[in-house]
């Protein structure tokens, strides 16, 4: 895998399930296949690494508790080198684990027991946001702000030094929503509707965690942010001037 993750619209989406419970793995693979996906399952980090060296996938469904390296460690490692959408699927359902999963780079977090149709819906939503299956390229223009450049088509963010900055699907969608609405106070609910970034947990906490991660990547001082400002009892506002380029 490379740091850039682009999905070809003419191909069938390929899902990799990392799950050590054979019964759950068989059920999920069957459900994915019935819904038009190509899917493969492995039971450990080592097996995941081996298959990723040979094949490419469009999304990873990742169990939290695995033999050897656990899902949270795998999530961190995947995110360090790829923007591939990641869904955590785990029995660890308390809020702390949800937040940790998001902070490590997961795009969504589903707890066991789960409804298979919910998992399919979440996967389809993430793939849509990753531009899978678009009939034609979206009519969106690359923009620049405070020396940064963001390209909605290529889904790339470039810093003022010309270096590409890796972002999760949710992080990119939030920053893009801000760039498309500069100077406008955006509530958490509005950001959720625009990006679906809150599906992994409570709306307020999920949005706040994602925005914190975006700030870490674009702000010169995260303790005193100047680009994404918090509006008390309102939400957030993106302050820089945004221009097409």
> What's the shape?
globular
β-strand percent reads 15-25%
- Predict the CATH topology of the largest domain: Rossmann fold
Topology as H/E string? EHEHEHEHEHEEEHEHHEEE
CATH superfamily of the largest domain: Response regulator
User: How confident is the prediction overall: mean pLDDT?
Assistant: 84
Whole-Å distance between the termini?
A: 29 Å
| Count, helices | 8
Task: Tell me the number of strands.
Answer: 12
CATH architecture of the largest domain: 3-Layer(aba) Sandwich
Major sheet characteristics: 5 strands, parallel
Keywords: DNA-binding, Phosphoprotein, Transcription, Transcription regulation, Two-component regulatory system
Protein name: Response regulator transcription factor
Pfam families: Response_reg, Trans_reg_C
InterPro entries: CheY-like_superfamily, OmpR/PhoB-type_DNA-bd, Sig_transdc_resp-reg_C-effctor, Sig_transdc_resp-reg_receiver, WalR-like, WH-like_DNA-bd_sf
